[in-house]
Design a protein that fits this description.
38% of the residues lie in helices and 16% in strands. By secondary structure, it is α/β, with parallel strands linked by helices. It has a 7-stranded parallel sheet with strand order 3-2-1-4-5-6-7, with helices on both faces. The radius of gyration is 17 Å and the shape is globular.
Length: 230
């Protein structure tokens, strides 16, 4: 197992939800964390923590964030791409702005972020990537647009695994169902107290960041309720 202490991990969406839970957990484990978010004032600065304005939709934002992380910490050992949105989009919808924005945030955001960090992950020798998918990466429910983007994130994960393997880069897709975050406020399929907790998902992400090259896990499915086909 790799040790988390002193490793430099970039976490997108670090101001709230899963991203914030991941950042807090990694800091408690002794990591140095660079949090990327739209409002950098929403993340506390400290000796092991820095915040950076990051817009997942903006093509130049990932490189600026990578450069700022290198200037502060001198290296990058891991990336956790937790930023995401989920406006409801049906296959029959003719208005495509919501789908286009979801594609930019959920798919192009992590693609561009990992692309910008990749040389430094390779230089680390055991760079790690964790992408936040969903059980919607594996099946399609009532939001086909969200499922389309999360299926694409699954494909991105396997592309990163394939292309980065020789450089010691490993990538894991975390696929939770309902998680008790701002994103699921208003969901009524199950009671909120039965949803997965962000801190528990953060623990799984930390585990993925620790796994050695010869025991990496490509995907983790995280269930808060029974799903017969997954």
């Amino acid at each position: 197992m790799l040790k988390l202490k002193d490793r430099v991990i970039m976490v997108s969406g670090a101001s709230r939800g899963i991203g914030r839970a991941v950042a807090d957990h990694l800091l408690a484990q002794g990591c140095r964390v660079s949090g990327g978010m739209r409002d950098s004032s929403a993340f506390p600065e400290g000796p092991s923590a820095m915040s950076c304005t990051y817009e997942a939709e903006a093509p130049d934002s990932p490189q600026a964030w990578v450069d700022a992380t290198l200037a502060r910490f001198g290296r990058i050992d891991g990336v956790v791409a937790a930023a995401g949105i989920n406006p409801k989009v049906l296959a029959i919808d003719t208005e495509e702005d919501a789908l286009d924005r979801m594609w930019r945030v959920n798919v192009m955001g992590p693609l561009r972020l990992v692309r910008a960090a990749r040389p430094h992950l390779a230089a680390s020798g055991d760079g790690r990537v964790v992408l936040i998918g969903s059980l919607s990466s594996k099946r399609v429910g009532s939001n086909v647009g969200y499922a389309m983007t999360k299926h694409a994130v699954a494909a991105l994960n396997h592309g990163i695994r394939r292309e980065g393997r020789a450089d010691g880069i490993r990538s894991t897709l975390i696929c939770p169902g309902y998680v008790a975050t701002d994103m699921t406020i208003g969901e009524d399929e199950i009671p909120r107290h039965e949803m997965s907790q962000p801190a528990d998902v953060a623990q799984l992400i930390a585990t993925a960041l620790c796994l050695p090259d010869n025991a990496s896990v490509s995907e983790m499915l995280v269930h808060c309720q029974f799903e017969p086909m997954l």
